[in-house]
Amino acid sequence: MYNEGLLQLENRLLELNEKALNDFGLPSPIRPHNNASDIILIRSYDTNELSVFINENLLKLVRDQRQAFDAIIDSVLNNRGLIFFLDAPGGIGKTFLANLVLAKVRQSGRNGLAVASSGIAATLLNDGKTAHSTFKLPLTVSLEQQSVCSIRKNGPLGKLLQETSLIIWDECTMSDRAHVEAVNRTLKDLRNSDAVMGGVTFVFAGDFRQTLPVVTKGTRADVIRACLKSSHLWSSVASLNFCVNNSILAKEKLFLLTLTAMTLNLTRH
């Protein structure tokens, strides 16, 4: 029991800042194989359970979702390292597709990480975490500083990111592009690659019609400048658009989409 408590404490420390208990003068736990790098930052998955989940849900994908699914999986399985953006209003099935893609990648024995810009969005992804906790994003960033994430190359998290085949970042539209660019620089360094995002297949998801980055005392121009679309990385992103199927939309969602479009038209005039 005592050793189990030490293990849980040290696992949490390593996950948060890649430090062990002995870095703070505390006793170290006895680990299986006595290897701290064996800490599981992403859990093992039951491939049979994943297969059942995939078989039950794959046929539920509509045409646009299936095309996006196939494009992402092809990039992962063939190490293409493509960058995608799932573009669709809320409630159209981005999260459903993301979880199905994660299941397929994990079923193949590859690492698939799921992050989101908000804690609520992260809970909707299978084993999702916030982008800040996963990438150790700096609290303050600026486009001029060329910031990077606080991840050691030889640490457990650094090694995990080197071996990861897919990263999904949900609600990316509310993140400052400086954070995304910091992740890009970090992955390039960790994976020793000049490719965008270090060559890992990367899927952004979000809706620019909803929440945008918050810029303290910023103007509209400042907010636009902070958006992912204003980043030099955007030219490498392939948008996967979901067409809205009005026949299956709830009346409330259809009304919300109409209201949003009307609001956008009013603000332009």
From TrEMBL:
Keywords: ATP-binding, DNA damage, DNA recombination, DNA repair, Helicase, Hydrolase, Nucleotide-binding
Any one GO molecular function term: ATP hydrolysis activity
Family named by the database record: Belongs to the helicase family.
InterPro entries in alphabetical order: DNA_helicase_pif1-like_DEAD, P-loop_NTPase
Domain of life: Eukaryota
Name the record gives this protein: ATP-dependent DNA helicase
Names of required cofactors: Mg(2+)
Domain DNA helicase Pif1-like DEAD-box helicase: 61-246
BP terms from Gene Ontology: DNA recombination; DNA repair; telomere maintenance
EC class: isomerase
Pfam families: PIF1
Reaction(s) catalysed by this chain's protein: ATP + H2O = ADP + phosphate + H(+)
Record gene name: pif1
Entry EC no(s): 5.6.2.3
